[in-house]
Amino acid sequence: MSGGIDPHQRLAEAEARAIAAREQLTGTLNQLQERLNPKLLAERAAREAADAGSKAARVGVETARRNPGAVAGLSAVAGLFLARHRIADLFSRKGTTDA
């Protein structure tokens, strides 16, 4: 064979490339399995939810500190809303106690 690479050498190079590609694929699959592990995904989601909850709480506290009147008003409205049936009962009893 003139000017060409030895077929055995070409085969050896091809096998070496195949082995390298297989190792890379195996590594990628291992990384995917690790990333998609349900336990790790659940832990990550719980951690992110806790972080988001604590951030929301901090923002809420800071907002309440900056606007105490609004918080007091909102608390009053919420209390009245929750007690609306009792308040309605008090007004309806006053009107029907004529006996």
Task: Present the secondary structure layout.
Elements: H1 7-35, H2 38-66, H3 68-82, H4 84-95
Description of the molecule:
By secondary structure, the protein is mainly α. The chain contains 4 helices and no strands. The protein has helices spanning 7-35, 38-66, 68-82, 84-95. It comes from Sphingomonas jinjuensis. This is DUF3618 domain-containing protein.
Q: Could you give the count of β-strands?
A: 0
* Average predicted confidence as pLDDT: 89
- β content, as a range? under 5%
Q: Could you state the order of secondary-structure elements as H and E?
A: HHHH
> Mind summarizing the main beta sheet?
none
Features:
99 residues; single chain; 86% helix; rod-shaped; mainly alpha; 4 helices; DUF3618; DUF3618 domain-containing protein
Outline:
With 99 residues, the protein is an all-alpha fold.
